[in-house]
Design goal:
This protein is mainly alpha-helical. It has 13 helices and no strands. The two termini are 44 Å apart.
Length: 313
């Protein structure tokens, strides 16, 4: 009885020591981290330049979208029409309509433009999965490349517990990189970016959990998991995730964006073409992201338990 009482806290301490040891090993920067930091620097440069140039507006967009004059030219044409010798009431109505139109296009479209170009198109579908790869595949991949995995497997900890410990150790780094990059991009966007941080941070959190669990699971399947994760990020998230139809619902970024749309509904943010995008509601998106996280951890733990992992170099 005494022996059982003493062994339980010992195993618990051993598990937390493995978490701490793995967390420390993740602190060593490697190639994917430097690539991620390079992408962050480039993104900050782009966002900062456009913020200083006042480009977060629809004034420079073609009207109608994709063809025709820009909104600025359209406003100039409307202003020119207002100089015609109309009556007093007609001129007043024209100026009121022109003022409302200008306020909506030039002054009121900033958050929509910043969200559409930076948060949805750049961050969620490209940077978020890419940055998650940097650490999420290293929990097991680094041990295999350093030929330390067999030593870890001989410890008095069950394999599912080892797999979970590795995920717990890598998750703070993934959250630090994704949240840190997201906040820096938001700050570079000025007031609109700070508003985006306040609105979209829960989606970034749940998206990071799901991406990290998925790539950690891939590390249990494949020796070079980073390659498989990059292929997934490029083709399924960046390309297929933006295609019409139901196929994009296989991508994590789709549900991350749906959660963002739900959070930003009060700000008038929604898919530009809802019938083409076919979003789900925020609760469904949250449940799917949480379900993906749990599912990937369970499948990854099962695979990690059954594999021999003798293919070290």
């Amino acid at each position: 009885m005494d022996h059982e009482t003493q062994s339980e806290p010992s195993n618990w301490r051993a598990w937390w020591f493995l978490v701490w040891l793995s967390f420390q090993r993740q602190a060593r920067a490697h190639l994917m981290v430097w690539i991620s930091l390079g992408l962050l620097g480039l993104s900050l440069l782009i966002v900062g330049f456009n913020t200083q140039a006042g480009r977060w507006t629809m004034a420079h967009w073609p009207h109608p979208r994709g063809k025709g004059p820009t909104y600025t030219q359209h406003l100039d044409n409307l202003q020119l029409a207002g100089s015609m010798p109309w009556g007093g009431s007609e001129t007043a109505l024209h100026q009121m309509a022109l003022g409302a139109y200008r306020a909506a296009v030039v002054e009121g479209s900033g958050f929509f433009v910043f969200s559409d170009l930076i948060i949805f198109s750049l961050f969620t579908t490209f940077l978020l999965p890419m940055w998650s790869v940097a650490y999420a595949t290293e929990g097991l991949g680094r041990e295999r490349e350093a030929q330390n995995l067999l030593w870890v497997l001989t410890r008095p900890i069950s394999r599912p517990a080892i797999f979970l410990a590795k995920y717990v150790a890598l998750l703070p780094w993934c959250l630090f990189l994704n949240f840190g990059g997201f906040v820096l991009i938001g700050l570079a966007g000025g007031p609109l970016g700070r508003q985006a941080i306040e609105v979209y941070w829960p989606a970034v959190f749940w998206g990071t959990l799901a991406f990290s669990a998925l790539f950690h699971m891939l590390a249990a399947f494949f020796h070079r998991a980073a390659v498989m994760a990059l292929l997934y990020a490029f083709f399924l998230e960046t390309i297929m995730g933006n295609m019409p139809g139901m196929f994009k619902r296989l991508s994590i970024s789709f549900y991350t964006r749906c959660l963002m749309f739900d959070r930003a509904h009060d700000y008038g943010i929604h898919p530009e073409r809802p019938l083409w995008y076919m979003p789900v509601d925020g609760t469904t998106a949250w449940l799917v992201l949480a379900g993906i996280t749990v599912f990937c951890l369970l499948v990854g733990a099962i695979v990690f338990t059954r594999n021999e992992y003798l293919d070290v170099d």
